[in-house]
Amino acid sequence: MNTRTSPTHRLVLASSSPYRKQLLTKLGLPFEAASPSIAETPKPDETPTQLSLRLAAEKAQALTGRFPQHLIIGSDQVAMLEGKQLGKPENAERAMSQLRAASGRVMEFFTSVCVLNSASGEILADTDLTRVHFRPLTERQIARYLLKDEPFDCAGSFKSESLGIALFEKLETEDPNALIGLPLIRLIGLLERFGLEIP
To answer: Which residues are annotated as catalytic?
Structure first.
């Protein structure tokens, strides 16, 4: 489907995340950012892809009243380790526990993005899957890393754009931006379907 929109439509990022704001800035498009207020509780039997897609859409939809003539971008990421969802650690103790569990294993990140035309109600969405293969990590390595990067607001307890890259053996990804929180390659495709030309 090719969903064209008026050039007067403005972009809104439905997020308060500084990481997502920084990523969206890469595209060179003017945008506003606003924080949506939604419940992020998973539903029974919801897969990581279904959860991330639903929450990305709900974030965008939460702002339609404030931005009725806009293209609203919502994004959500679900981190999984051996079937268990990982949240933001919030403190060093939980971050240590997450990285200890990830040592020598593979963590999966399901990052969904949606674009909602708030004037028409039309919505497009897509999901990126990134697999992070961790090196075997010692307690000392984990402690040193946490002291330097303080990734306590990041699901998985690392910042891949910073020193967190030293924790990995390899990444399986189509878009390294997705791991930081916003899959720009997929977002560009969605925005183009709404008529935006990038670059």
So the answer is: 76
